[in-house]
Amino acid sequence: MDAEIIAMLGQDGVTNGAIYALLALALVLVFAVTRVIFIPQGEFLAWGALTMAALEGGHLPTTVWLLAGLGVLALGVDLFSATGRRTIGRSVLWNLAYPLALAGLLWVLPLAELSTWARVIVTLAIVVPMGPMLYRVAFQPVAEAPVLVLLIISVAVHLAMVGFGLLAFGPEGSRTTPFSEAQLELGTLMVGGHTLVVILASLVLIVGLYLFFDRTLYGKALRATAINRNGARLMGISPALAGRLTFFLAAVIGVLSGVLVAPLTTIYYDSGFLIGLKGFVAAIIGGLASYPLAAAGAILVGLLESFSSFWASAFKDVIVFTLIIPVLMWRSLTSHHVEEEE
Amino acid sequence: MNSRIETASRAPAPGASRVGPKHVLGLFLVLLAAAPLVLPDFYVTLLNYIGLSALVALGLVLLTGVGGLTSFGQAAFVGLGAYTTAWLTTSQELPGWLAAIGSSPWLALIAGLVLTALVAIILGSVTLKLSGHFLPLGTMAWGISLYFLFGNMEFLGGHGGLSGIPALKLFGFELIENRHYYYLVWAFVLLGLFTTRNLLDSREGRAIRALKGGMVMAEAMGVDTSRARMVIFVIAALQACAAGWLYAHLQRFVNPTPFGLHIGIEYLFMAVVGGAGQVWGALVGAGVITVLKQWLQDILPKVFGSAGNFEVIVFGVMMVIVLQRARDGLWPLLAKIVPVREAPRVIDASAQPLDKKPQPPMGEMILEAKNVTRKFGGLVANNNMSLSVKAGEILALIGPNGAGKSTMFNQLSGVDTPTSGEVLFRGKPVAGHQSREIAGLGMSRTFQHVRLLPKMTVLENVAIGAHLRGSKGVLPAAWRLDRVEEARLMREAAIQVERVGLGEFMHTEAGSLALGQQRILEIARALCSDPCLLLLDEPAAGLRFKEKQALTELLRRLKSEGMAVLIVEHDMDFVMSLVDRVVVMEFGEKIAEGLPEEIQKDPAVLEAYLGGV
């Protein structure tokens, strides 16, 4: 192994690590605000990537129909438990009118001729609304349940989404064209343009999230909910709104990671799970609480993965997932008194 | 109101049939034994698989339903059992001693169980001390790792797997036919069922049942909750391993597929759908999910026309609905159809009394806190607090709301650790020690916010207090070798229940008592541990006048027996007529100490309670 290979593996590792970092941030965010351990995060990544691929191929992405279906479900749940006419009106608008309007728009748009940026926007427009809808349907009715129940529901949602993913995309994988084909030469090191796009995009997203949480009222409301749910509720912050907003952000992050990762590797309907779990390993390094630690953990996971795929490629996943053991051991040695579970 | 509860708890409900649990059980066993004699082969095979799944789900019932923990990695433990026996019994190139184990599948079973226990202990020791969601995440990662390991190990046959596993022999009889194997599978299942049920109805079982929502209380009663969590995790893993061993010798072939994470999730679904709180839920869940999967795999491709993983959609959606609408699963719904009445537990009045520790002599210093300070960041909840209690003395700790009384209690009882200062209990420093160690020394407490297990009876709740006075562990409990000790524990609990005046509610669910009675129950539970010091946190709150009088009388009697009592209370009439000395706190500090009459005239105290008058 010479310096060139090390540099290449390092570059690979940091690129993947940047994506894991995004996922880890979303996981920490969702857990902090809603106490849901969001296993389906990976599905948003896969659906984002595959929707992008479908658009690139000039097809109407089947995710539109999933959006419409989920919207009908969400509307149903709203009707079933609704209190006011305004809520229903808004629910009809977002859960029924929006998906249909989007489908109609996609029908008339010349999909094959869209620019890359337009494709990204369309992908976001299709997949992201499913985040809040999912929260409405699966999690909001049991928002006060113990973490364990939420976790099992989360796994169940993941399973169903994988099944729907197979239905929508079929068993074949897809890969999209990179955002940039340029090659930069830094000394002896060749840096791919797409690598820079990934790293830059991740940084922009992280800074954006920071500003959102630090500067905006909604961001502060989410932080308040994360720190003290009941206290936030007494201050007039609706937990349902906080949940939907969080899932919206998680979906944005998931879809963008999918769009970024699609040119790097072939994505299948079920690829999201393993990628998402690597984000989890990173999030666990941060104790499901610290954003900077989670991001650092993500880079570590990325590097570990790329180097172990060089030395023992068959065992790379084993190595990455076994990393969780020493991390948990360290966490366990540094925690003391018995506390009640929620 | 009292009489209403009494009749509800004692007289059989009108119209309830005379079906006892024994009749239903007997019928079930007969049906189970007759099934392979009458059913076609297909159904016998199906029942075999249901049995195997039930064995795994049973472990999850204990872990998830009872203990409040969960694991997605049970399929990996099944794989560990299956691969251990597959490798040992088929490999030709084993070193001598391993070959000796491999000569008999039964020895391979033992090897698998030992290996599984080791893995479970390692996994458990790194995750169980952390909050509950780290175990499922850890097991998820471990499930994936093991799956890839199975698939990539040359000597385990890679993704192709291992074949040619020998059939099992029982007393020289080869179990090749499904009909014969059926009896072995269900013998294992029944063994698992009954040992689990026995375990739950024992001293260790009560500790395990306290894990879900009662950990702080259990620790204060001397239960080692991390050990109890470990115990159920290992038991669940061993049951999964045994299922894997049975699977390997039934199929005579293993490959990694049935041990992947998705199957692990399916096992958890079985436990949840069946009803994770009861052992029978495992059977129901395993049956429903196995049959449903079979049926869906048959029917869905015909409906949708293409091959796909449609059943996961149905399972996923079903799971969400079950958890949203019927979180206790199907078993409670089934149990309603057949109204089986559990007979109330019989208390053996002739059981030998439990040993008592010698009470310290009157006037001996029991508890001494010296300059205890507790800071939470910038907030000083306790500042330089000192107090002492002697044997045969009742000390009251009073003060306005937010003065730091309960925080002080937590420092004394080991629930929290003081930032600085010393706590001596019978001359030994105990600050910073675990609350269960302190409980073992003879300090027992009640909680300001009542902490009991609402689904357990009053008697069982009180018996948790006697945890440290018994010694029989998990194995004796599972095999019912603990009954002599159990009778003694129950007798003691019953005596304490009677003593505090809750005798008529002995077999009532604790959650259905009024708040005041629940507080009294906590006192009985504390007394059950044979303490020399009682810490009572607002025992009179929510009590009616007569009940307060009875409590006063009880505490006076305890005092005359040499008990030291430290009491936090807001009810001044109650406090002033009962206690020997009073310590007054405000803003985390002691502002006065003395006899009740002196305190009532103390200007600082009047200022604190009434403002400047």
Fold and architecture overview:
The complex is a heterodimer of chains A (342) and B (613). By secondary structure, chain A is mostly helical. Chain A is 74% helix and 2% strand. Chain A contains 15 helices and two strands. In chain A, strands 1-2 form a two-stranded antiparallel ribbon. Chain B has three domains: 43-337, ABC transporter involved in vitamin B12 uptake, BtuC; 362-442 and 531-613, Rossmann fold; 453-528, no CATH class. Chain B has 25 helices and 14 strands. In chain B, the strands form four sheets. Chain B has a six-stranded mixed beta sheet, sandwiched between helices. A four-stranded antiparallel beta sheet of chain B has the order 6-5-8-9, with helices on one face. In chain B, helix 3 packs parallel to helix 8. The longest helix of chain B has 27 residues, at 225-251. Chain B is elongated. Mean pLDDT of chain B is 89; it is low at 1-16. Classes of the chains: A mainly alpha (342), B alpha/beta (613).
Quaternary state, please? heterodimer
Q: What's the story with the biggest beta sheet of chain A?
A: 2 strands, antiparallel
Question: What's the total number of strands of chain B?
Answer: 14
Largest interface: A-B, 49 and 60 residues
Label the overall shape of chain A.
globular
Q: What is the first-to-last residue Cα distance of chain B?
A: 43 Å
Broad structural category of chain A: mainly alpha
Report the principal-axis shape of chain B: elongated
The proportion of residues forming helix of chain B, as a percent range, comes to 55-70%
Helical content class of chain A: over 70%
Could you say what the CATH topology of the largest domain in chain B is called? ABC transporter involved in vitamin B12 uptake, BtuC
CATH-derived architecture of the largest domain in chain B: Orthogonal Bundle
- Number of helical segments with 4 or more residues of chain B: 25
**Beta-strand share of residues of chain B:** 5-15%
Strand order, main sheet of chain B: write it out: 10-11-12-7-13-14
Which class best fits the helix and strand makeup of chain B? Answer: alpha/beta
Distance between the termini of chain A: 50 Å
- By DSSP, the count of extended strands of chain A is 2
> How much is the radius of gyration of chain B in Å?
29 Å
Total domain modules of chain A? 1
